[in-house]
Amino acid sequence: MASIKSVAIKQKFPGRIIEGPALYKSMVDNMKKYGRIHEAELYVNFARKTGLTKLLKQLPSAFNLLKKRKLKMMPDKIESTDQLKALIEAAKKLEKAEE
Asked: Helix %, strand %, coil % for the chain, to 5?
């Protein structure tokens, strides 16, 4: 599924969600950095790419999540991010070979 999304983004295939490619890129970048998704940074990076007004509208729910300790400010990081990066790069090479 990820390779289909990647190809669709490269070919600028119009999707149902306009912000889809920006969200996908933000998620992949976040995974490369931490080895897992860090929701707070993911949303901030996504908002930077799509417009900060969306981020401002979501601040009340972000504060509620922080109060309930459902949203972490500091990300957890897996030990072997190098292996994850290598895996992502190998997948990209496979996608290029299929083109």
From this structure: 70, 0, 30
For residue 36, the tally of other CB atoms under 10 A from its CB is 13
Structure token digits, residue 33: 């950095």
Structure tokens at 1: 């599924």
Per residue in 8-27, pLDDT tens?
A: 667 666 666 667 778 888 88
Give the chain's count of helices (H) and strands (E). 5, 0
CB 38 within 8 A of CB 77: no
Tens of pLDDT, residue by residue over 28-75, are 888 888 888 888 888 888 888 888 887 788 889 888 988 998 888 888
Distance CA 64, CA 55 (A): 14
Which residue's entry shows tokens 């933000």?
26
